[in-house]
Automatic annotation (TrEMBL):
Keywords: Methyltransferase, S-adenosyl-L-methionine, Transferase. SUPFAM superfamilies: SET domain. Residues 1-332 form the SET domain. GO terms for biological process: methylation. This is SET domain-containing protein. The keyword Transit peptide does not apply. InterPro entries: SET_dom, SET_dom_sf. Pfam families: SET. The lineage of its organism: Eukaryota, Metazoa, Ecdysozoa, Arthropoda, Hexapoda. The keyword Kinase does not apply.
Length: 382
């Protein structure tokens, strides 16, 4: 391992540091989440993915047919599709779908034993269905989080053979003061839904009325779970069509065939955007133990990737990293990172409740507090 977690007593808290030279392009770490779940609307809109790891459950052809609204479309190079439906399986009782027997067993052993609906029939008065409905009504797309990450996290504790150890694992994520958490919970649900937090708390308690998790179901405990999700959850996405496209790019094709396939791909994207809009991936959120120790920089030296088209996370060096140098990723998206200092800090404060102290923000400290043009147009749209 070329890194270690260092803990600072100040606001910097846990941080990841290189322990030896890490050349650009090196895979620094890979890890599976301790908990993952798909967004509710995303699942409802038939983005079929493994309930445990987000691996696509539909073929690339089925995927583009659905997203293009064209059930007869034939996708060339079918061998480039990675989806292996032969391995797919489902829970015998509730029908939840998994990419493999391993994922089904892993889900059952970690959280599904206590969360299984026990029936394939929809029961609108089941506490899980009630929470699903309430959450969907509070949190419309574009989705940024899921209450079910909290539910699965708590179910993990309930099912754990060592409850104290499982609780300590969850507590290792929390680093916020009560005041900061209140602000974060506020942002997490949107201004007009702040009063709904106690309703969500009651609904979660109805699903898991277990004494082992009572400390997380008090108003303060629940608030800190919301803060935990808000500050540490990592968005994940998968797409059978993207995986197919990457495999097609690796094919050794004549320039004529390459041009032909490039044109087909362009047309597919145009049709998908026209029929479905911007959201083409299966999407969800996950919590990672090591990744959650990585601080943000507006000039990062590493990036997060999902190379297996599921929730397994890879940290890759964007630059040469020297021993004792901090490993930093960007919490902002590709477009956001290029905005002005003022805009970047505004986004980080709104979404993660921290005033960025990265080297780039410190270097640009004399910049006027100007808002990027993109932000101004978004504000106008809002
Ligand atoms: C995912 S955690 C990263 C690990 C964190 N240092 C810890 O102790 O758990 C995200 C939190 O780290 C802190 N943080 C990360 N990057 C920062 C930065 N550039 N400036 C100030 N605080 C930062 C913020 O408190 C943020 O909410």
């Amino acid at each position: 391992m070329a890194f270690e977690v260092r803990i600072f007593p100040n606001s910097k808290g846990k941080s990841l540091y290189a322990t030896s030279h890490i050349p650009m392009g090196t895979l620094i770490l890979e890890e599976d989440p301790i908990v993952y779940c798909q967004f509710s609307w995303n699942a409802l809109c038939k983005y079929k993915a493994c309930d445990n790891c987000l691996r696509p459950l539909e073929t690339a052809e089925e995927n583009v047919r659905r997203l293009m609204g064209n059930p007869l479309f034939e996708l060339p190079y079918p061998d480039c599709c990675q989806t292996d439906k032969n391995n797919s399986t489902s829970c015998d009782l509730c029908g939840n779908e998994y990419c493999s027997e391993n994922c089904k067993i892993s889900a059952f052993n970690q959280y599904h034993k206590v969360l299984c609906l026990q029936s394939r029939e929809r029961n609108n008065s089941h506490p899980i269905e009630l929470l699903e409905e309430a959450w969907k009504n509070m949190h419309y797309p574009p989705e940024t989080s899921s209450i079910f990450l909290i539910v699965r996290l708590l179910a993990n504790i309930v099912q754990a053979s060592n409850t104290d150890e499982a609780i300590q694992k969850v507590l290792s994520f929390c680093h916020k003061s009560v005041n900061e958490e209140a602000q974060l919970a506020h942002k997490f649900l949107g201004d007009k839904f702040i009063h709904q937090i106690s309703l969500l708390r009651e609904m979660v308690a109805n699903i898991l009325p277990n004494p082992q998790i009572s400390q997380f179901l008090t108003p303060e405990g629940f608030q800190s779970l919301l803060a935990l999700i808000g500050t540490n959850a990592q968005g994940v996405g998968s797409s059978p069509f993207s995986a197919w496209r990457q495999n097609v790019e690796k094919l050794n094709l004549s320039s004529k065939d390459r041009e032909k396939i490039n044109n087909i791909v362009d047309t597919i994207y145009d049709d998908m955007y026209a029929h479905t809009g911007d959201f083409l991936n299966s999407e969800g959120v996950a919590l990672y133990l090591k990744q959650s120790c990585i601080n943000h920089s507006c000039d990062p030296n590493a990036e997060i990737k999902f190379l297996h088209n599921n929730s397994r996370l890879f940290l890759v060096a964007l630059k040469d990293i020297q021993p004792d140098e901090e490993i930093l990723i960007s919490y902002l998206g590709e477009c956001e990172i290029n905005r002005s200092r003022h805009s970047r800090r505004k986004l980080l404060m709104e979404n993660y409740i921290f005033a960025c102290e990265c080297s780039k923000c410190l270097e640009e400290i004399d910049q006027l507090d100007v808002t990027s043009e993109e932000d101004m147009s978004t504000e106008e749209d809002n």
